[in-house]
TrEMBL record:
Designated name of the protein: Phenylacetate 2-hydroxylase
Taxonomic source organism: Pichia kudriavzevii (Yeast)
GO molecular function, one term: oxidoreductase activity, acting on paired donors, with incorporation or reduction of molecular oxygen
Domain of life where this protein originates: Eukaryota
Family of this protein: Belongs to the cytochrome P450 family.
PROSITE patterns per UniProt: CYTOCHROME_P450
InterPro entries: Cyt_P450, Cyt_P450_CS, Cyt_P450_E_grp-I, Cyt_P450_sf, Cytochrome_P450_fung
List of residues binding heme: C460
Gene3D superfamilies for the chain: Cytochrome P450
Record's signal peptide: none
Pfam families noted in UniProt: p450
Keywords linked to the UniProt accession: Heme, Iron, Metal-binding, Monooxygenase, Oxidoreductase
Cofactor(s) in the UniProt record: heme
PANTHER family, per the entry: CYTOCHROME P450 MONOOXYGENASE ALNH-RELATED (PTHR46300:SF2), P450, PUTATIVE (EUROFUNG)-RELATED-RELATED (PTHR46300)
Amino acid sequence: MPLVHKPIPLINGLDFMIPKAIDWQDSPALKFWHMASTYGDVYQMKIGTKLVVVANSADSIQKLWCEKNVKGNNSRPITYSFHKILSKGIYTIGTTPMGETYKKARKHVSEKVLSEKRNKDFNYVIMDRACDEMIERIKDKQGRNTNYDKIIISSDFLKEAQYFHLQVALWLTYGYEFNPDDIAHRYLGDQIIECENKITKVRSHVQNAQDYLPSFLKFVIAQFSKRNLEIQKLYSIRQKYLKEFHDYVVGFHRKINDEEYVEDSSTLKKNKAKKLEHVKTSLLYKFLEKDHADIGSIEITSECLTMISAGLDNTPLNFKFGLHMLVNYHPDFWEEAYNDILQHYDDDSKRAYKECSIEMKSEYVKAIVEETLRHFSVLPMSLPREATCDLVYRESIIPKGTILFLNCYAGNHDSRRFPKPNKFAPSRWLKPTTDHDGKTNKVIDKSLKHFAFGVGSRKCLGGNFATRELYILFAKMILTYRPAPQLAKDIPPDISLALNMFPESLAIETYPFEIQLEERTMNLSGVNVISPPSN
């Protein structure tokens, strides 16, 4: 492979590998960022046999991932560990190389599930109910603190947020009503969470040395690698639960198309009829009914896998970190958000709780979401790209086939774009505006961009979906609870990487710690009835 022409600096060496990260300060994102002080914001290096270009600043990311390079920086490299062993030809949409399969799947799932129209018409109803049920489960665990004489909840919140996302994803994808209070459902949910979490740990594009070695060395390593055996086991577990959900929908579809079953209405018990209506709204059922002309089995499998796995860690981890920052460091921001929500609902907290999922009216809560996404940077190193044509960066030509690393953490903490980047400051996302009556308000500054969802032609297609999930979670929690006087002696750090249990993993996974909240006096929650979408 030809080398990138100067003046982009080159770190020579066929055997350049990133040492295994043991401590959070060994995080690949930090190492690449520190190297930028020597080699510049953009540099190239050889990792094994592969040529890699790394971008470590907001400006360089913008130039290489957008602007004139947007069409050429649009594919994913095929990696041995993830694509060959773990996925075996069936990938999430985000990890699929550029091609017709990717284009069809992205277009289809965007229209059917992830569009902003769908978010406003139906998705918010599912999110609203799942959040209400999450809060009810949290309340069941709370107790009165005798020293403080208040109702206090002390929780890690991560698992409950993961159940929340599973409820939303399984409903929209399969019409499957996941109930964490049911022992069998909870066992299945925990299995999915554990498997997808382990996949996140083994799929790092920086810490898998075998992905960058010649084929004959991969073969040799495969004979002795326990890691590959672990990856194969994860593949089998994932296929099992994906098949279970697939068969669940197919079973209903066959019954619906069985004339005797349809005519004999007595066989449709109330609970089965209810499940049937849920299934008929799902992504997979609609594919079985009428979407064959748009996509095939490969695309729908990719879409279903994407819906299950894509947000299972990311949304819950961001939610937990946001709670941590608000409760443990900025309780004043929590109350500011509370007051901002209420002003849109005539200071009626019950109405606010019931209606806050319909429209994202609070600009301050939206700012909290954006700042959480930026500050946390759940994927410190975004998924790699592969150039499908020559790219231009300043005076340099980056040849087709080059792998590109986006240092998301560095870009999101670039002081040239985000002054005082280590400060959690939702206000940075707000700008003043004047309405028709001359009243000054603050709204989200849409010109300010973070890289939490990637950027450019392969930006995460579920960004708006995840943002709405986080908005609903934060809004309802803020309306239900307030920060409690901290009972723990040691407050966890406010640097996301310092909270990471597994610095070698693809995503930041915070170590367990509890956050204390005090319940507000009035009972706001109540589970809503779900009606199917109009289309």
